[in-house]
Amino acid sequence: MKSMTTARKAKLSITLDADLLATIDREAKRLDVTRSGLMERWLRRGARGGEAQRLEEETATYYTSMTARERSEDTAIALATGRAAKRVVVDGSSAPGDRRPKRGW
Known about the structure:
By secondary structure, the protein is mostly helical. The protein is built from three helices and no strands.
């Protein structure tokens, strides 16, 4: 039985410009990987970049579609959470603005 983490690979044939293939070969040699391994890395990186771009566009669309009331509410929430975050004490450190000396250490 194959491991659950082993993905099944599909074989395909592609046509590339000679200069691009030379770049792939140089980079694959430099990294000591196969052409397929290198191209898979590049394609995954491109896919992640595409997803990040899509998310960025959707976020921009969301914010530009907000009504004035929604923008005002969003600003109020951001200000309130920012103020609350300044009062958070992490690992026994003093809260910002707390001038009392630390004890013990």
